[in-house]
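Long-time lurker. I teach an intro course on protein structure, and each term I like to show students one example going from raw sequence to a predicted 3D structure in token notation. This year I'd like something fresh instead of my usual example. Would anyone be willing to generate the tokens for the chain below so I can use it in lecture? Attribution to the forum is fine with me.
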Amino acid sequence: MKLATVLLDGLQRVGCISSDETRIELLTEEWSDLVDIIAAGINTAEATMSGQSLPLSSVRLLAPIPRPRRNIMCVGKNYLEHAKEFARSGYEAGAVAGKDLDEYPALFSKLPSSVIGPGEKIQLHPTVTQKVDYEAELAVIIGSGGRGISRDEAWDNIWGYTIINDVTARDLQKNHKQWFLGKSLDTFAPMGPWVVTSDEVDAADLDVTCFVNGELRQQANTRDLIFDIPTLISTLSAAITLEPGDIIATGTPVGVGIGLSPPTFLQSGDTVEITISGIGTLTNVCA
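-- Reply from a regular --
Happy to contribute to a lecture. Here you go:
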């Protein structure tokens, strides 16, 4: 099932997307926040439907979780070829020369305030950075959560999946050593277009592509992840309690702007289109 968060007549609503992705059936107004639905342990098939079905074109799609309640948890260098291009790029602060693979996942976070929805503008912040890059990623939405989740238990703790563009100011990422600032500027986490529940897709085998202005830049499959999804959930939850609605961005494939020759950064007017099989397409334009 695909669930979207939308704006209708100035109100935030949640609804189920039709199989042909042309209509949305709204839930009752009491279920206007996807995190509340997840936290309540409600099967979306059992959630009260309002009976109101509308053309999808008649509402404004928001990010599925427009303002996450905690930082988005992210993983860096989680596809081998991207790890190699990052190591060669000169933008990896403190990197060991020639070291492509890390022994442990590189973990960082993005502020909730960086989230925007489908169709919203990615601000390039030209007074702060001149090197803004794109990163297509599968995002995991935690369901029941908990602490000390084992690899074997991990899949059962996932509520659904969505797409995130882990937009990055490469110069800030390098200059400040820690990645938090370069990853957390306003509008640097486009998300959507909706969440697909975990029973609908096999997250260990999803195609990920990214086009910039119609040019294919990134293409990979989640089976190529260095640290797979159960490993990420087990690592993060070892001594941190994961909560319903927490978001984990799983890493980006090879083909980001810093890996091109010469490096190519986003410009005003550029369109970034990310597609993940079984989920959908997230499109944003730079401003």
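Some talking points for your students: The helical segments are 34-39, 80-89, 151-154, 170-175, 180-183, 229-237. The chain has two domains: 2-61, 72-286.
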